[in-house]
Amino acid sequence: MYKRILLPTDGSELSHACVTAGLEFAQQLQAEVVAVYVAGNYQYPLYVDILPPNGPTEEEYQAAMQTLAESYLQPVREAAAAAGLACQQVIQFNDSTAKEIVHTAQEYACDLIFMGSHGRSGLGQFILGSVTTKVLSLCLIPVLVHRIKHH
Prior knowledge:
Blueprint: E1 4-8, H1 13-29, E2 32-39, H2 58-82, E3 87-93, H3 97-107, E4 112-116, H4 130-138, E5 143-146
Parallel strand pairs: 1-2, 1-4, 2-3, 4-5
Family: Belongs to the universal stress protein A family.
Domain UspA: 1-145
Pfam family, one: Usp
């Protein structure tokens, strides 16, 4: 059925629960997984001539985001290995998370995106998440939206 499944993560507890469910689903199908973290692009100061002395440079920002992304993707990679699944990890930079998720799915020839259904807190618990909604509207491949049940 599905041979390569994209698992987006933002490092949150909800995202981790969704990735865990995605790995279980992939294991049932013996599918490969591609775990992706999308970081925002470096934001240049409004006045480029006057760089704040305590602000990170673009290189420092990129390095910090790489380290952060690695910390979010490592548990996915380890869980996939424990389940006997092949796993690629991808770190992307883009201000449009949804567009980058769809682009990554295309780039890595994924035939399914498995992602969470809703936001992290407040009203977001009851409505479909904005990134998920955008992915659904942009994507030409199936998207399995996983709903986390709260006890």
